[in-house]
Design a protein that fits this description.
Blueprint lengths: L14 H12 L15 H13 L4 H10 L5 H11 L3 H20 L12
InterPro entries: DMSO/NO3_reduct_chaperone, TorD-like_sf, TorD/DmsD_chaperones
Protein name: Putative oxidoreductase component of anaerobic dehydrogenases
Keywords: Chaperone
């Protein structure tokens, strides 16, 4: 599908990616899939959330990942998927995961950092 949302103008690894990598290192999370892909893509970020929960990390750590990294851009990404996906399954999945993020954000009382997004 090729939809992307960036937190910096260039599509290479910018400050936000470097900060996210540092966060992962600090919490012992390795996301090496054997493929050449950035750690901050949606599937791997959701996997990182699951790893923090599985490791029984403090909820504050999970909130940090959500506040500073995932929730800063995911809603825009899900909006684009729903607008441009060729299949209903991707559109529905984007809606479902977006709803999950909204519920988690509400339950954990999170206000995501405001960032400028690029496409």
């Amino acid at each position: 599908m090729g939809l992307r949302v960036y937190r910096q103008r260039r599509s290479d690894f910018g400050d936000s990616t470097v900060a996210y990598r540092q966060f992962l290192r600090e919490h012992g999370i390795e996301l090496d899939t054997g493929m050449r892909e950035p750690e901050d893509q949606i599937g791997l970020m959701l996997f990182a959330v699951s790893q923090l929960i599985e490791q029984q990390q403090d909820v504050g750590t999970v909130k940090t990942l959500l506040t500073e990294h995932l929730l800063t851009w995911c809603y825009r990404y899900f909006e684009l998927v729903q607008q441009h996906a060729k299949t209903q399954s991707y559109k529905q999945l984007a809606g479902l995961v977006s709803l999950w993020c909204e519920v988690v954000q509400d339950v954990l009382d999170i206000t995501p950092n405001a960032v400028k997004l690029y496409r």
